[in-house]
Amino acid sequence: MIFIALLFIPRILSIHDLMLFEYGITFAIVGLGFNLLLGYTGLLSFGHGAYFAAGAYSVAMIAKYLPQAYSLEILIPAALFFSLVLSIIFGFVCVRHTKIFFSILALSLSMLLYALLFKLYHITGGSDGLRVTLPTLFGMSFKGIRRPEFLSGTYYYFLLGMFSVSFLVMKGIVSSPFGKALQAIRDNEVRAELIGIRVRRYRLYAFMISGMFVGLGGALWTFVNGHVTADLSHWVFSGEIVYMTLLGGFGIFEGPIIGAMIFTYLKLYAMGNTQYWMFVIGATLIVLVLILPNGVAGAVSSLWTKIKLKSD
Amino acid sequence: MLAIDNLKKHFGFVKAVDDVSLNIEEGEIVSIIGTNGAGKTTLVNLISGYIKPDSGRILFFDKDITYASPYVRIKLGVGRSFQLIQLFGGITVLDNVRTALFSKYGMIRRGLLSADRYSSVTEEAIKILDNFNMSDKKNLTPKGLSEGDLKILDIAIAFALKSKLLLLDEPTSGVATSDKFKVMDSIVSAIKKEGISTLIIEHDMDIVSGYSDRVVVMHEGRIMAQGKPDEIMENKEVKATVFGIVS
Amino acid sequence: MWVVYTLNGLYFAALLFLISLGLNIILGVMGILNLAHGSLYAIGAFIAAWVIIAIGMKVPVFFLYVTLLSGLVLAGIVGFLMEKSLIRFMYKRTLEYQLLLTFGALMLLEDVIKMIWGGQAYYASAPFDLLGKVEIWGHIYPIYFLFVMVVALMAGLFIWLFMSRTKLGIMLRAISLDREMATGLGLDINRLSTFAFVLGSGLAGLAGALVVPTTPALLGFGHEPLILGFIVVVVGGLGSLKGALVGSLLVGFTRSFGIAVFPEIELPLLFLIAGIILVVKPEGLFGR
Q1: Which residues pair with B168 in a beta bridge?
Q2: A290:C101 CB<8 A
Q3: Global ipTM
């Protein structure tokens, strides 16, 4: 039902609003992936920007160095591959430790990537970053079309398709036996180990899957943004990912999606109205944590439950 | 099926377990009683693998598990519950048991189909909950359960692991006195149905005499006496040291 | 040149020691990982730079160095305000909320710094220049760096004596070892926690103030020291003073020699070494 409505969006929204919506969708994919690790496995990483950057830079680097392969059907698997590899390496280091160390290491490793992306500017473009042009899709070329047209046309449906697939896959994962095992680890890692779940190993699996989803989001994002920079791996950006997930609510499956959409508009609003948008984000984050720890979706859900109880 | 030979565990000067030998047959329910510090929990920790002994042997179905890791022992069929309830608070009662079953059957790798689609495992989980009279609560989360129900769930999870030997550390502690028998009834009927051997640490003598096939009395790290519940209750030495009754 | 590299290593270690000591005190006593620790470092730097520029040459030279303490003081005050308004809500909550809250504070403080001091760089090199240079084993070396090492050493000694000899210090250690037990003993956890937070924040501010005569205070100033501080804590072990010392020396030397050999390699090399240590000892060198 909602999906059908989404198909008509390009006709309703202006180009500008549509681009914003598309940003929101890419972050929704990121949020779904991130929440597998946070909401379902109980691990908080302030370093997931690294996997976003991995996906984004896969696209940008192929654009620069392998233009003959610059096609979506190659780019997407490449982004998934590189973000998977990175999340295996970083994840392996992080999951061996207790929660505090885990968070510190996840953060530090993403900053390591940031430093590398920043310093190796001959390859990566450093702080200037790399440009991302329009790719081809199964042989369809978009030469001659300008980005806004691309985004409101074919790309929108591609993006929607990717989002739908991500949504369904993640839905399957969290309700599966694997998903239940992750939640058991989140709730009581000692007992989880005692019922035969190899906690470290499954945390790594969760880390890897979340890394891939985030990397996919990153790759899809590049076409909307047209440009990638090292900042994508900076912890401030990682913090934004955490923020959106929290904003929407990490206790509910759809929470991160809602959070991603709200955050995209919130950030734009804040940035448009004040140069101190970090203050706004920081302040609202604090307020959220103190007052609405279950996020918007969580609050709505409890409100709904209360209303239902009253009417019974 | 469980044979303990001359087990010793000293912590510095404290002889927590001092030359203990014990056999448990299949299907037996054995209670361990004794004063605090008598070595009961240490013995259970040694059997479940949390700590390793200084000397002695533990054989489980003739397999030497003396120094095996807890993980290995669980796989072999040694299950245990804890004094402090250890549950998975964020998932349903059904999932608490079902996840243990998935783990037991090596199915937790399966990541794409919904858990509900695995009907045989789900039915088995419901059956286990039935044995413990908890199947009506299967869709609740632990937050909505009473203390007694939480205890039963804790044991039901250990149960789901198809343990052949169950180690229960004070299963009724923290449960309201009025509920204790109800809890034990549920647990023991489920145990008897499957023929599982059980070792229970208990302080409540009514529970002990009501449900045990055999009682083992520990004092200062050693086994002071063992026998049928009524024999132990009449034993003068036991009465003096454990109950403080001097006649 | 090895002499210079070694001395530089000690200099970096000195600064990191102050930062990680602060982190460890807060982590040890309160169990809270303060992501905004770097912001306190930055605040210390900006305030010290501002004070030095403002009063600069108008006071006797001795006071110039005392003004560096202004960094410690203001960071301590900000820490106090933070603790009273935010941190105290976090004791009952889980780690995730603590990290989120301090992360929010980090973003907030980042812009507060921007609001107060704008986006430009603050140069306050007077304390550095005035001390001049000295010759050590044939190499010319700025005395200011040695001054920083001395200050850090003194601070370390002070904290060590404080923690082991004074009643207040012993109480703080009691809390870090077993919080519940400490409450049972009648210790005023709230006031002591506030004190620990202020102390930790002050140390961060002091480090920032000490750095300012050598590097201009800029936005984003606190990010790298924070990451390095985290690495020190992870490598040295949570809540360990010895760990902070050894970890700082390790990171400081790696940095100094790394930069000298091949600048790009500095951070990856550091992570590599940290990674190896963690593989062997996941709790850190002196961790519990």
Answers
A1: B81, B200
A2: yes
A3: 0.82
| Residue A197 distance to chain B (closest CA, Å) | 6
Size of chain B, expressed as the number of residues it contains: 247
- Distance, CA of C228 to CA of C205 (rounded, Å): 16
Go through the domains of chain B in sequence order and give each one's CATH number.
Answer: 2-243 (3.40.50.300)
**CA separation for the pair C11, C14 (Å, rounded):** 5
* 3-class secondary-structure state, position C21: helix
Mean pLDDT (chain C) is 83
CB A80 within 8 A of CB A59: no
SS3 A97: coil
CB contact (8 A) between residue C97 and residue A46: no
Distance CA A247, CA A237 (A): 15
Task: Give yes or no for residue A174 having a pLDDT over 70.
Answer: yes
Tracing tokens 């008509």 back to the chain, one arrives at A8
B and C touching (3 or more beta-carbon pairs closer than 8 Å) = no
Contacts of C106 in chain A (CB under 8 A): 239, 282
CA distance C111 to C117: 10
pLDDT tens column, B178-227: 778 888 888 888 888 888 899 999 888 888 888 888 999 888 888 888 88
* Residue A55 to residue A220: CA distance in whole angstroms: 8
**B247 pLDDT higher than 70:** no
- Alpha-carbon gap, residue C253 to C260, rounded angstroms: 11
- Write the residue in B86, B107, B113 that is nearest to A190 by C-beta: B86
What is the rounded distance in angstroms from the CA atom of residue B214 to the CA atom of residue B230?
A: 10
- The answer, yes or no, to whether residue A200 has pLDDT greater than 70, is yes
Report the SS3 class of residue C171.
helix
Q: State the pTM of this model.
A: 0.86
Domain residue ranges in chain A: 2-232
Token duo for residue C26: 């807060």
For residue A168, give the amino acid letter.
L
Structure tokens at B186: 């549920």
Looking only at the bridges linking them, the beta strands covering B29-34 and B214-219 are: parallel
Q: What is the mean pLDDT of residues C267-278?
A: 81
**Pairing outcome for strands B55-60 and B63-64:** antiparallel
Q: Please tell me the distance from the alpha carbon of residue A108 to that of residue B57, in angstroms, as a whole number.
A: 47
Subunits touching C (CB < 8 Å, at least 3 pairs)? Answer: A
In this predicted structure, what is the pLDDT of residue C288?
Answer: 62
Tokens, residue A38? 């946070």
- Dihedrals φ, ψ of C33, to 5°? -95, 110
Q: Tell me what pLDDT residue C76 has.
A: 87
Domains and CATH numbers, chain C: 2-280 (1.10.3470)
Binned at pLDDT 50, 70 and 90, residue C56 comes out as low
- Other CB atoms closer than 10 Å to residue C173's CB: what's the count? 15
Neighbours of C182 (CB within 10 A): 20
pLDDT in tens, C206-258: 999 888 888 888 888 888 888 888 889 888 887 778 888 999 998 898 888 88
